[in-house]
Amino acid sequence: MDRNKKYKTLKVASPAEILRAHQRDDGMVKYLREKVINVLQLLEKQRGLLPLIHSDIPFKLIYFLFTSGMGNQTLGEEYTGIVQANLDALKVPSLFARVLAVVLECFGEIALLRLLKRLELLVNHPNSNLTPTATILLNSFISKMCTMIPIIILFHKGLFYMFGQYYSLGKRIAGVDYAKVFGHRPTDTISWGLRLLGIATLTQCVLRIWQSRNSENFSERYLTVDEKHTPMCQLCLEKVPTTTTPCGHLFCWFCLTDWLNTKPQCPLCREHVIPSRIVHVMNL
């Protein structure tokens, strides 16, 4: 029988089955990591590979290379009787989709946050031609995105608990879901326990957003009411400035010294500033 035709009769895997499969796969990844560490200890090669063995990501990639990457079920999928499937197209996911899902799960969030940090460095670089207003707006946008990305991923996890489709955001982007192929199937496809967990997760996301917006509003009110006495550093937008340039602009000590070590100019008016002429203001 053609595997693609078989998917027309398959049922969507329940969230509980998907969770059990991933828990079993995570256990296998940790077991693989422990065995590799034991071998490296015997060979006395552990020290040079510390950055790798302290993370599960390399072992996840190896594990999924020999399972999903080769078109096989993972041990967790075999245990629960589910398979990866493109349920919208009613066909087996392509190799590209399976690999993309794994790569996004392992590196998606990390890559986005590192990209934002790199962008932040470019925005605040002394050689940047951006105006002070543009620098402030971009720094604010980058800060909000760094806060929102983990919340978006957590929000998607809450949707999975509630509705049971797409275990991760990476799998949703790649179009990889799960279908039930054999074994006992729960009578309730989405248990009330998981629904409750989904509600709690979505509530947590709302509270995080509310907390972040409250902190932003507090900062705005703080600057509006007491701006002349306690302005914020115009480079990091986080710390109260304690250092002034000869031209009278205020920054925090670490931001200003880092800037002047790269380029001896005031970050705002571009006036030439010698690092030895900056003054630490103690009464701010």
TrEMBL record:
| Entry EC no(s) | 2.3.2.27
Q: Which organism is it from?
A: Xylocopa violacea (Violet carpenter bee)
Q: Name one Pfam family in it.
A: Pex2_Pex12
Which pathway does the database say it acts in? Protein modification; protein ubiquitination
Name the UniProt record assigns to this protein: RING-type E3 ubiquitin transferase
Concerning its family, UniProt says: Belongs to the pex2/pex10/pex12 family.
The primary location reported for this protein is: membrane
PROSITE patterns tied to this protein: ZF_RING_1, ZF_RING_2
Coiled-coil features, chain-numbered ranges: none
Is Transport one of the keywords?
Answer: yes
Transmembrane ranges, per UniProt, are 95-116, 136-155
PANTHER family linked to this entry: PEROXISOME ASSEMBLY PROTEIN 10, PEROXISOME BIOGENESIS FACTOR 10
Q: Where in the cell is it found?
A: Peroxisome membrane
Keywords, ordered alphabetically: Membrane, Metal-binding, Peroxisome, Peroxisome biogenesis, Protein transport, Transferase, Transmembrane, Transmembrane helix, Transport, Ubl conjugation pathway, Zinc, Zinc-finger
This protein's record includes keyword Protein biosynthesis: no
- Protein's membrane topology: Multi-pass membrane protein
Start and end residues of each RING-type domain: 233-270
Kindly state which reaction or reactions the protein catalyses: S-ubiquitinyl-[E2 ubiquitin-conjugating enzyme]-L-cysteine + [acceptor protein]-L-lysine = [E2 ubiquitin-conjugating enzyme]-L-cysteine + N(6)-ubiquitinyl-[acceptor protein]-L-lysine
